[in-house]
Amino acid sequence: MNSLQAYIILCDLGGTFVDVDQITYAKDELGIGPLFAYGLTNFLNFNPQKRIFQTLEKIGGTQSVITHENRDNAVPKIYCDWMAGAYEDHQALREYILQEIDKLYQESFFSSYLEYCIVYNAINAMFCPEKLVQHQYLIKPMVALLERIDPAEHTLVAVTNWDPHSYPLFLESPVGQKIAQHIKKEHMIVSGYIKYNKPHEGFYQHIFDTYGHDNKQKYLFIDNDITNIKAAQELGIPSIHFTGDVSAIEQALIDRGIIYEKRV
Fold first, then answer.
1. 121-155: per-residue pLDDT in tens?
2. Three-class SS of residue 188?
3. Domains and CATH numbers, the chain
């Protein structure tokens, strides 16, 4: 296929091409029973993620730059630092965090023992590379778009906020191996390796340093987090916000001559 130009397509991974299976995650890591019971006892204000984030903020402080997907929730600083590769010993970090959670429970930070259990188990899984990786799945319609892009004409680049401890395990997993069939390892920009998270300017600067500062119109950035999209656009990178509508991404690729329109 001969498009008007060769594109460097910047592909976010988490939430765009792969995601976490919330059902198996809840069942295996949180426990369906405790989660259900907690939901019943807190049905008017049932937001486990909010309490998880509040707990991590209590332990490691706050930041206001990185949001959770397209929501307004700021990701806690300690998790941002984790994704940026600030901690070499992930086991020691997890043990420290879990000890601090126990202290918070003793200080009556949690509304109930059920809430404590859910937060403890969720955070344990967040900072355990093996647990994090095992619940990943492919967003197959989005991956199918990658299969339609000619690698001889365009360069596919993974741009992801991912810690350096679980990312190697991800690449070894069936989900990671599938992604690696379309995106070469040398074209994977991972926050944990470059020490910057999206939407920090340093992350995008690394992209420019690697693939060129001239002609930013050669880039096309796809991400599910509107904060990352806005940051890229401010730097002149053409961007598409993935909201779950695969057809919108497909049409954008067709409009740019990157893929063919499917024949009916």
1. 999 999 999 998 999 999 999 999 999 999 999 99
2. strand
3. 8-19+136-255 (3.40.50.1000), 22-134 (no CATH)
